[in-house]
Design goal:
2 strands, 357 residues, flat, 3 domains, mainly alpha
């Protein structure tokens, strides 16, 4: 290469490196001012569907599904919501399960869903949700306990206990307060009263079954302590009056969480939603699980089992556009710098060869 051309190439590479660094710096500055909330942003529904399809095509193999089903069958009591989700996923993905896994599943199902075993566990679950597992009996407990009457009884009982200075089940009464007052509270906070009502009932069931994560428990405990003027609750005359004793700044996160999980219940059914609640730690998790269920539909429970919570939530995210631009600029600057260094090394090497000759 002629010396003048090498000098031109060196200048071009140097200019490219500077421009790439400027572009990267500009993108990072824009990213810092965008208020986007982080390096990762949520994909669109279409992007999520494609991303989950790719992840499940790679992970939902016959071996993987067979191993997970075998592990769930070995549990006592068995989680039939998770087992059903895995079987549904295999069907939706067209994954053939090993013959021994199908046989073991059928035998276990016949054992747990037999008339005598189901009647015995059903009565215990209907009487006390703490006796419920994620098995055949779960429908009985849900059917008896998801009622407005139950909310009113809980609210009255726990408010009276508070007035007498007795111990109060803070979460139970908070779910009852949100469920009974959903219409008035939603008018203040925005959202769907139907989702909030459904979510409050479902969360009460999850609480009594011990399926709430520590993060969810903390959120509703804060709502109990700071979100309601309990001293005024005994004086209210109807459900709409509940909004007048609410402190919405403290109560809004709990209402938002309840609405997301109520919408999740509408998509997956109460049993599916109860299973998914075990992977929710905060409002952001609840929103992401809900969006994932929009993309996955009946595959949601099985996908959570196969991918695990961390990957299940991460699939729905992508790098923010400004951050991607900044990384692309840094990569371009790195490539230009490497080419520039290589060009200079070649020039020095040629000079030494010529000097030696």
């Amino acid at each position: 290469m002629r010396p003048d051309l090498r000098r031109v190439l060196g200048r071009v590479l140097g200019a490219l490196m500077v421009l790439s660094l400027v572009w990267s710096g500009w993108s990072m500055w824009q990213f810092s001012r965008s208020g986007a909330g982080g390096w990762l942003v949520e994909r669109s529904t279409e992007q999520m569907q494609a991303a989950y399809d790719r992840a499940l095509a790679h992970s939902a193999t016959p071996e993987r599904l067979g191993a997970l089903i075998g592990e769930r069958l070995a549990e006592s009591p068995r989680n039939w919501v998770a087992l059903g989700g895995l079987m549904d996923l295999a069907l939706e993905q067209g994954v053939p399960l090993p013959e021994n896994v199908q046989t073991a599943y059928a035998l276990a199902h016949a054992q747990d869903f037999g008339a005598y075993a189901r009647a015995q566990s059903c009565l215990a679950c209907a009487y006390d949700l703490r006796a419920c597992g994620m098995g055949a009996e779960l429908g009985c407990g849900i059917g008896v306990n998801l009622t407005v009457l139950g909310d009113l009884i809980s609210l009255g009982r726990e408010s009276g206990a508070w007035a007498r200075g007795q111990e109060v089940d803070q979460l139970d009464v908070t779910f009852s307060f949100i469920g009974v007052g959903a219409t008035g509270l939603v008018l203040v906070s925005g959202g769907s009263s139907l989702s909030v009502k459904a979510g409050a009932g479902m969360m009460k069931v999850a609480h009594r079954m011990g399926r709430l994560t520590p993060g969810v428990r903390r959120l509703y405990q804060r709502a109990f302590r700071e979100g309601v003027d309990w001293a005024r609750v005994p004086a209210i005359r109807n459900a709409d009056d509940l909004a007048s004793v609410a402190r919405m700044d403290a109560l809004n996160p709990a209402i938002e969480m309840t609405g997301h999980l109520g919408a999740l219940q509408a998509r997956l059914g109460t049993q599916g939603a109860l299973h998914m609640v075990g992977s929710v730690e905060n409002v952001t998790d609840a929103r992401r699980v809900l969006r994932a269920s929009d993309a996955l539909g009946p595959r949601s429970v099985g996908a959570l089992e196969v991918l695990g919570k961390s990957r299940f939530l991460r699939v729905g995210l992508r790098l923010a556009d400004t951050l991607r631009e900044a990384l692309a600029g840094l990569m371009a600057a790195f490539v230009a710098a490497c080419a520039l260094i290589w060009n200079r090394l070649l020039r020095r090497l040629r000079k030494r060869v010529k000097a030696a000759a």
